[in-house]
Structure prediction request, 354 residues.
Amino acid sequence: MPADGGPTRDRILDSFEKILVSGGTRSATIDAVAAEAAVSKGGLLYHFRSKDDLLDGMLARLAARGAEDVEKMRNAPGGPVDYYLETSIDSGSDFDRALIAAARVAYESEERATRALAALRDAWFLVLRDHLGDDSLARTIQLIGDGLYFDDTTGLTDKTSLSHVRNVLKRLGALDS
Amino acid sequence: MPADGGPTRDRILDSFEKILVSGGTRSATIDAVAAEAAVSKGGLLYHFRSKDDLLDGMLARLAARGAEDVEKMRNAPGGPVDYYLETSIDSGSDFDRALIAAARVAYESEERATRALAALRDAWFLVLRDHLGDDSLARTIQLIGDGLYFDDTTGLTDKTSLSHVRNVLKRLGALDS
DNA sequence: GTCTATATTCTGATAGAC
DNA sequence: GTCTATCAGAATATAGAC
Prediction:
């Protein structure tokens, strides 16, 4: 029986994501992931046959969580735009961690990770466009979200960015509040 | 005498950037860089004592080219905003390649690369702010640029994005033309 | 300045005991 | 399901010839 963090399989995926976020793909060796998950290398490889398989597992879980997030966004009390911008900054949630981990891998020219992120982005865009009824505005807001996300995950964070963006979007009448 | 591409040292840096852009940090081994530069491993290590040293060389060259780019932006005929947005999309220039290469490394939690990118971003922001006289607008446009850049370098490219952004920035009176 | 050969460490993966 | 032991290949770096 595992010490904590639920079933071993999920604990391994959690550890994989954690290491990807904190140290990038080079740090995310099978050895390191196994150590973080408090399991042996052999134990890890029982659940995931290879490193490739580990990535597939991570991306599958991301896709499932992503579908939930899109629903939350569509029904957010403050409106989809504000929800989208808020969640473009890392709040430390499990979903944020999964997203950042996938981006790290995508940046290594991994097509599977890129496709997973692209699918999510498409879903977010549709919600923005349906809500705003304006393609250009929806696309621009998505780019701002991508920018916030990129800055945040590259360590270029500027905590005042979000209020500046809200300021500008008010002028455009793009915020619900 | 080198076969082509100028002095060996620069040819090695070019090769390092090329491989980082096309395959990420995992592909950019000393072996691969040496092969791309048509030099032996030992030959490469004569010019750069270690892989760390190779990265330092790359970032130093980026900083020098960055200073030139900021001047170009300040004096761009169509205005700094349009110049900034245009150059946020990979045009295939040497500078773009250097920039994308640095971002790949920064995504591996490499502080040196992050610092180099942050310095450039700060310089670009000052040009935008001076030109627009509006902190919120300048910050927002910078985020849009970051978004364009992130999408482009992650393979999420949407070629219509730029015209959508121009459309929205016109409403805000942020474009010179 | 550039090469080849070699040492060393790291990484992914397998085999088989428990 | 989980462990230890082990291997094959890759990666960084050094030494010394040319």
